[in-house]
Amino acid sequence: MCTYASLFMQPTNLQPQLWALGSSRGSSGSTAMPQPTNADIKLRVFILSSSVATKVAALEALSLGCALPCFAGDGRDFSYNNGSSRAELHVTLRMLASDGRPLGRPELIFNSRSFGESHQLDINHVSHVAGKPDWFYQVAGPGPIGQPRRSAQLPVSSDQLDATLAVIGPRDVLVTLLVKAANPLLLLPAALAPAIDAQLLIQFDFAAGTYSITGQHDGFPAYELYINMVPVHRHDPVAAGKGPADLIGKMGVTVNVLSTPLPAALWQP
């Protein structure tokens, strides 16, 4: 299948001096070119409710031991740092050396990438939240997550949670974020288990000082993307009328953020 990444990630043979963006002199005099900068990029995928319950197919019900399984959510709102996530990917696009000079070539540094621990809860320890979708439950039992029947955590691999970097022009780079995470508590083949899916492409044009975002992700759960700690994309499944059933099939949300001024870095390299 043709992906967004395949449209941009073409072989390049750029020389290191193309990244030394100082000042240049045109026919009309001296013109200051925008300096390259480091960029902090963080993607968080989370469940708004503290627990979620949804009907499942017979095969899943057999593996889970109940027809209406309940799982712990993250129970939080949108936040750069606070609370847990089902998946989190935090990288730095590094254009500057520690002394502030442009690098010969850009680098992508992983700060963190992780999956949150999954818990299956007892139906007696959760209750539906009035006025919310049918999947939106809250923990009613003792402890922060009630009493889990089972717990598991998906191991991190580049096939399931990754970021890649491609140089696509003299002052242009493309960062691709990938998430493909199935619930580790579902005892189903990977091809059958519904998974959280996302593929987001962030193109940085450092000559213009802008970024743009294209890509797709599932309608569920919630998604938040930050550049330099500034939210640049948020998806609320409650507001969008989406739920766990939207994990099945193709990614249903298209992301298209047109060229936008790059938020100023809030920290020094």
Can you walk through the features of this model?
With 269 residues, this protein is mainly beta. It has one domain (36-261). The chain is built from three helices and 18 strands. It has helices at 4-8, 58-64, 237-240, and strands spanning 23-26, 29-32, 39-46, 51-53, 70-72, 87-96, 102-115, 118-121, 126-128, 136-139, 148-152, 161-169, 172-182, 195-205, 210-217, 222-227, 230-235, 253-261. Strands 9-10-4-5-8-11 form a six-stranded antiparallel sheet, with no helix packed on it. A five-stranded antiparallel sheet has the order 7-6-3-16-17. A five-stranded antiparallel sheet has the order 12-13-14-15-18. Strand 12 (161-169) and strand 13 (172-182) form a beta hairpin. The radius of gyration is 21 Å and the shape is elongated. Residues 1-34 have low confidence and may be disordered.
Q: What key attributes describe this structure?
A:
mainly beta, 6-stranded antiparallel sheet, 269 residues, 3 helices, 5-stranded antiparallel sheet
Describe how the helices and strands are arranged.
Elements: H1 4-8, E1 23-26, E2 29-32, E3 39-46, E4 51-53, H2 58-64, E5 70-72, E6 87-96, E7 102-115, E8 118-121, E9 126-128, E10 136-139, E11 148-152, E12 161-169, E13 172-182, E14 195-205, E15 210-217, E16 222-227, E17 230-235, H3 237-240, E18 253-261
Antiparallel strand pairs: 1-2, 3-6, 3-16, 4-5, 4-10, 5-8, 6-7, 8-11, 9-10, 12-13, 13-14, 14-15, 15-18, 16-17
